[in-house]
Amino acid sequence: MDTPKFYDLPKLAYDYNALAPIISEDLLRLHHEKHHAAYVNGANAILQKMDKARTDNADFDTKATFKELSFHIGGHLLHSLLWANLAPPGKGGGEKPSKTIGKVIDEEFGTFDRFKKLFSQTAASAEGSGWAALAFCKKTNRPIIMQVEKHNTNVYPMFRILMVLDVWEHAYYLDYKNDRGKFVEAFWKIVNWTEINRRLENLLKS
Ligand SMILES: [Fe+2]
Question: pLDDT at position 157, please?
Fold first, then answer.
């Protein structure tokens, strides 16, 4: 089977209404089917344009094209990470981190509550459109909180992302209006720590 040459919109592991009332069905559907899909389509359109330029042996504006490609691929990858690091409340969502991830968080941040506070502050203070992410540095064996502007600015190369929270307005406005803080607070009720721990253990094994 040939390796796919384009990106696909991943299916969610839960129904569109499964995260309500934290994220309503309308909001999740819009976010996944419209916003995430736009990044997938945007990245694929640029890849097609680059393929055509190769066939035609033509030049293209590299600065603008690679910047736009990074924006769309960043948007696609971060949203893909986000859907999987969420789970419905009572079905894995909102539990406390345990196992390796629980230990790593306690060692670096002192307590889970202190980590929650720092991560929430990072999400609340992202200027304009962006993300809060928990990444991990294998050189120092430290989890690192990272604030991402747009989808691609401030990303640390090589640091694998374990968990993300989308704080673009499209991620919360329909349910929370301009109250980003309330959305960030509610996010903790649907965090899927089993998945985040799986990502960390895979990274440590690699
Ligand atoms: Fe988003």
Answer: 86
